[in-house]
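Next comes this protein:
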Amino acid sequence: MSYQETRVGVPGIDRYIVAFVLVLFFFLFLKVQGFGYVVGVENSYFYMGKLVSEGAMPYVDFFYSQPPLMVFIFALIFKGFGFNFFLLKSVSVIATGVSSIFIFQLVRNNIGSREALLSVVLFLFSYDLLEASSHPTGINVALMFMLVSTYFFFSGRYMCCGFFLGVAGLCNLYSLVLFPIFFIHSLEDKKIFKFFVVSFVLVFGGVNLVFLYLYGDVFI
């Protein structure tokens, strides 16, 4: 792609990045306008985060049906800022924004800039995404880490790929749908296999083993 195709009148300004930033800010503007209290499962996550910030632990002190990461994210917010409704609601929106950045870069690097911008628009303004990003329940954070992992997979950085897929798995188990795809690819090269599998096992397996050791059948 030529310089003229990717630049606007000001040297060093990439028009596709400018367009992406404008699209992202428009999305964030729309989402912030919709911040408000709703009767839904997000309140359970907020309360569990509050409990963890006060010293309770998931599985043993209260029932929790997911891997542990999300409640600790909310606990950090409570620990640092108390009950800050805006920050708590922002978790899913921020995660979605980060996801859009990695989608843009992933598609741009492998297909093209126009396609990257179109992909972001389709992603951010799809019905399911607009609805799901209003409720910080963990799905958006898991998706963010899945996209980060996928970006590093296509970039050939397999240790980072395994690490972030492991983190995604600590948010929600359905994130692991990517594991067999990356695993099969890693079998083509011992070095790729070592980097991807070891980093994934250390993160996902290590944390789960700690909780299994601490809480046993309750965690299972």
User: Anything to note?
Assistant: Residues 85-110 form the longest helix (26 residues). Confidence is low (pLDDT under 50) at residues 1-8. DSSP finds eleven helices and no strands in the chain.
